[in-house]
Here is the input.
Amino acid sequence: METNPAASDPMATSPLSSRSTPITNPEDFLKLSGEQLDAIFRASPAGEIPVGEGDGTCIIAPGTEVSDTIARFVHIFTWKGKVFERDEANPGRGWLKNRLLLLGTKKRSQRPASSFTFR
Here is the structure.
């Protein structure tokens, strides 16, 4: 499988350099390699814990020609994003729940097994 030509660009290997253009279109993340995505998320500061539903894009095979196609397929048929819930007793904690489309019916994941601690 051939990778996206942008991934071989020296500017693309350092997505956070001062010379690089900020990503304003979320679909541009699909064009980056796994290493580039890791660098962005490692260098990004933690923000406020969101509340409510968020649409999502499943990134599989990042930086490849098929990444966009796979992301669209997964979004249409299964994964829709996350639901963010803040712990009212401890505002520094929260839970993420997957929003799934199962057998044609929108449904949230049934168990809070995907809970995380936010910092």
